[in-house]
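Your task
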Amino acid sequence: MVVCGDDALAHRLTAELRTFHGEQVTLVVPPNERLVRPPVVGRARAASAALLDRMVSAAVGRAGGAGSAGAGAGTQNADGVRVLEAVDVTEAVLAEAGVERAAALALVYDDDETNIRAALTARRLNPRLRLVLRLYNRRLGQHIEELLDQAATLASGEGPDGGPDASTTVLSDADTAAPALAAAAVAGTTKVVQAGGLLLRSVERPPARDGQLPDQGLCTLALLSANGGGPGGTGRAGGEHGGEEPRLLPDDDEVRLARGRSALVLEQVSAVGGAVPDAAGRGGGVGAGVVPPLASLFSRRLRWSLAGLVACVVALAVALWVVTDIGALPAFYLTLLDMFAIDDPAIGQSLGRQVLQLLSGLVGLLLLPVLLAAVLEALGTFRSASALRKPPRGLGGHVVLLGLGKIGTRVLTRLRELNVPVVCVEADPEARGLATARRLRVPVVLGDVTQEGVLEAAKIHRAYALLAVTSADTTNLEAALYARSVRPDLRVVLRLYDDDFATAVYRTLRAAHPGAPTRSRSVSHLSAPAFAGAMLGRQVLGALPVERRVLLFASVSVGGHAELEGRAVGSAFRGGAWRVLAVEGRGDVGPDYVLGAGDRVVVAATRRGLAELG
């Protein structure tokens, strides 16, 4: 396996392939000056991150970087990973990395153009190579995937699939991580996974009584830590906190004997194509829908004015009907003529008719400024349609989203799909997510979140949750601490890179605000399993964070797997490793359905369990 990248995802992916799948990996990284991450005060390194740290140290600690277009001499580090330094991924660099003999190549640079250029070169060097690209642009990714597969077919001449191994998979770390980040910020909006023609979600169940099984839904995905934290909290070592690590995919006996531990269970929502459940059950209008078109064109004061004038017209018409004893329709007709001053004067008619004509003329005079105001407001709405909206007065129960980069843009889209009101905060006026916020008519506050008054402008004191997804750990932490000083019970979700730093932050916030939910996420941590599965030829459908661990949902072919073939769906299970959830193309099948070689199943698996099924 060859992994090329310039940020945390490359190192996470390499550790994933080496640790959980036992693959031989060559890591191509930029030279020293481009690899060093900004320091974080108080960063600790623990044993759980030792492999990743040793890989980074091996790449950073060597002297003599590569030339502008070449690669440095490859070095085998203590973990058996060959590390190669290169500024650009040229044909010579790919050849030095062994692409011509490799089974798979992952190009996970942050720049789409770099990945595309390297993929075209790699496909020419090895038509049978399995390619995995990281691209943010979805439409471009579809075209590139088709182009590279076609090139493999023409070069290999082995049919439409380009041979048994050649394939191209385009993934986006933003798309992979956004659902988990959005779900963590919205209480009551459970994690949703689309699998095997079903829409599945995970929900948390309270601890069961001794000797009894809780409501397990389709199955129990995990037993959470005994000392709380919920399905999205940061994991803690049991010896330090007196609790236990979360247990993924437990069997029924473990669930029955678990005391004081909540369970994360899987439920079926509906068939694919149904609506994703709204963020219900949360006060303050968090589940409010999109603003109606009339309300977006005219202000509430103007709408009340128009309603009052219509009521006056109806009252005058009814009065004229009673006074003159004419029909209802003629009464309305004469009232409108009087309003617009195009009827003859009521000379020689009854006093009541004359009074009603004068009142109708007065209402007509009042109607003119209201109509003018309506026209001006509508024009102003259309003129400001391309401008960024400001948070409206009285807004409450919303989610404050910090950062509109790649990750923030995808999270914003996901939140709006769930009908969750959002206020965005972005320091860069040229950020890529501003166009999306403008299109979705989401209020945006432009300013540095670390400056005083910015979070206040986003109505943080009335917000439901804060979701900090900027690329700087310290910025996210500073915003979270300030928000908690304003609202101690505020739900906070942080995007943090370092596991130990995230754990330290969680412990501090949890101790200072025990009643307020706190979550931490690492985008590379959530995305790496999907990229690793694609390199191994597996289809990873999604990743579910369980505290600081990850549970994977993947599509696996039954043929060739002795653990699956010939077994019933209900018994196709290995505790702590994997469990069959559904059979693709079969709809709802019972637990007694026997899996055949031609079936393809959806499994929930740990990292090691998915490696075993490989």
Summary: The radius of gyration is 31 Å. The chain has 20 helices and 23 strands. The longest strand covers residues 263-271.
